[in-house]
């Protein structure tokens, strides 16, 4: 099976559209979304409509949880809270119902792939994994991890290789899984990359060859930024799209 895995679209229709166009040449069998379809961007309903139809499984992200009333986000900074409030007022009844039922994790048993938004250790806390020390917190639940555990949340592309006793970070480039190790892979962000590369991020996993691939693609940032401003969201949410941070 060839899986298309993407995350953190954040209501960026232009980035999502570019990614889906790129996927069309990759012979994808099944799509998985790792969460945060809403938040920050100007097109929450349009993106939710697409992801709801496309992805076989979509995981609950923290912004999804906030918009759907499933978590307290009063401690978020003001601009983020404002964006979440605006999106909560914008999303359709159908998309709100969809957000309310999204799971925190999903195990694709036939391929031994675990899907989460943040760390699988404390799912409802949406904790980050972007450093080996954070990945090391997963060692006590080693047996509960998939051969590959796929996450989003950090908006960064990262690969951590786990044995029962240690963690090593390797370069976020295409790689093949080894049978006696486990992997935690952060797939980056479709709609708001934060690694100073403003191209949308998307990934693929071939469960037959055990090969994981990273991809990037350019999209219409000007239109995406214009929609952020048109929705009266924080101007920085538009500006950061240009620099990928």
Number of H- or I-type helical stretches: 8
Q: How many extended strands?
A: 12
Structural class of the secondary structure composition? alpha/beta
Strand order of the largest sheet: 3-2-1-11-12-9
Known CATH architecture? 4-Layer Sandwich
- How many domain modules? 1
Major sheet attributes: 6 strands, mixed
For the record, what CATH class applies?
Answer: Alpha Beta
What would your notes on this structure say?
The model has no long low-confidence stretch (mean pLDDT 97). The chain has 245 residues and is of the alpha/beta class. Helix 7 (221-230) packs antiparallel against helix 8 (235-243). The strands form two sheets. It has a six-stranded mixed beta sheet with strand order 3-2-1-11-12-9. Strands 4-5-6-10-7-8 form a six-stranded mixed beta sheet. The protein has a single domain (2-243), classed as Metallo-dependent phosphatases (Purple Acid Phosphatase, chain A, domain 2), CATH 3.60.21. A hairpin with a 4-residue loop joins strand 11 and strand 12. Helices cover 30% and strands 22% of the residues. The chain has helices spanning 13-23, 44-54, 62-67, 78-90, 93-100, 132-136, 221-230, 235-243; strands spanning 2-6, 30-33, 57-58, 105-108, 113-116, 148-151, 157-162, 167-170, 175-176, 182-187, 200-206, 211-217.
Descriptors:
single chain; 245 residues; alpha/beta; Purple Acid Phosphatase, chain A, domain 2; 6-stranded mixed β-sheet; 8 helices; 12 strands; 30% helix
Which SSEs are present, and which pair or pack?
Elements: E1 2-6, H1 13-23, E2 30-33, H2 44-54, E3 57-58, H3 62-67, H4 78-90, H5 93-100, E4 105-108, E5 113-116, H6 132-136, E6 148-151, E7 157-162, E8 167-170, E9 175-176, E10 182-187, E11 200-206, E12 211-217, H7 221-230, H8 235-243
Helix pairs in contact: 7-8
């Amino acid at each position: 099976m060839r899986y298309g895995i993407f995350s953190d679209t954040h209501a960026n229709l232009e980035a999502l559209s570019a990614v889906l166009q790129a996927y069309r040449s990759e012979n994808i069998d099944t799509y998985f979304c790792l969460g945060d379809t809403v938040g920050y961007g100007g097109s929450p309903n349009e993106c939710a409509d697409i992801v709801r139809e496309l992805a076989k499984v979509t995981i609950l992200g923290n912004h999804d949880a906030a918009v759907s009333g499933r978590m307290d986000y009063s401690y978020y900074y003001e601009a983020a809270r404002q964006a979440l409030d605006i999106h909560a007022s914008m999303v359709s009844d159908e998309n709100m119902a969809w957000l309310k039922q999204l799971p925190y994790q999903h195990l694709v048993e036939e391929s031994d792939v675990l899907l989460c938004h943040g760390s699988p250790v404390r799912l409802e806390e949406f904790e980050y994994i972007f450093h080996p020390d954070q990945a090391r917190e997963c060692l006590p639940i080693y047996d509960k991890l998939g051969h590959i555990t796929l996450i989003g949340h950090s908006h960064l592309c990262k690969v951590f290789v786990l044995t029962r006793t240690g963690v090593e970070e390797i370069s976020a480039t295409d790689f093949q899984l080894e049978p006696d190790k486990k992997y935690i892979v952060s797939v980056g962000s479709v709609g708001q990359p934060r690694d100073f590369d403003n191209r949308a991020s998307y990934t693929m996993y071939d469960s037959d060859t055990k090969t994981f691939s990273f991809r990037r693609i350019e999209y219409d940032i000007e239109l995406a930024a214009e929609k952020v401003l048109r929705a009266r969201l924080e101007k920085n949410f538009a500006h950061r799209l240009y620099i990928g941070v």
